UniProtKB/TrEMBL annotation:
Protein name: UBP-type zinc finger domain-containing protein
Organism lineage string: Bacteria, Bacillati, Actinomycetota, Actinomycetes, Pseudonocardiales
The organism of origin for this protein: Pseudonocardia aurantiaca
Domain UBP-type: 4-93
PROSITE patterns, sorted: ZF_UBP
Pfam families hit by this protein: zf-UBP
UniProt xrefs under InterPro entries: Znf_RING/FYVE/PHD (IPR013083), Znf_UBP (IPR001607)
Length: 93
């Protein structure tokens, strides 16, 4: 008997992840800092280093950045957290 499904495999968007990413604004959300808005949690774009606020924040800048420039994967920029999220697949990466 054979399965009628196959594992999808690793997220193809991982190709966008760079090893040498440096946070552009380590002090907080780049866009919130510019407009004087608060944020809840921070996310680091693993393609360019943009620091954006999470989906629980009023402006959701990390998601907006991903949609605007096509950088799909972020990691938590919170102390002690190291998970990654793919906005394209809406899943951990």
């Amino acid at each position: 008997m054979t399965a009628d499904w196959a594992p999808v495999g690793p997220d193809p968007h991982l190709a966008f992840v760079r090893d040498d990413v440096v946070p552009r604004t380590p002090e907080g959300c780049e866009d919130c800092l510019r407009i004087g808005s608060p944020w809840v949690h921070l996310r680091l774009c693993l393609t360019c280093g943009h620091v954006g606020c999470c989906d629980s924040s009023p402006n959701r800048h990390a998601r907006a950045h991903a949609a605007l420039v096509g950088h799909p994967i972020v990691r938590s920029f919170e102390p002690g957290e190291n998970w990654r999220w793919c906005y394209v697949d809406e899943a951990l990466a």
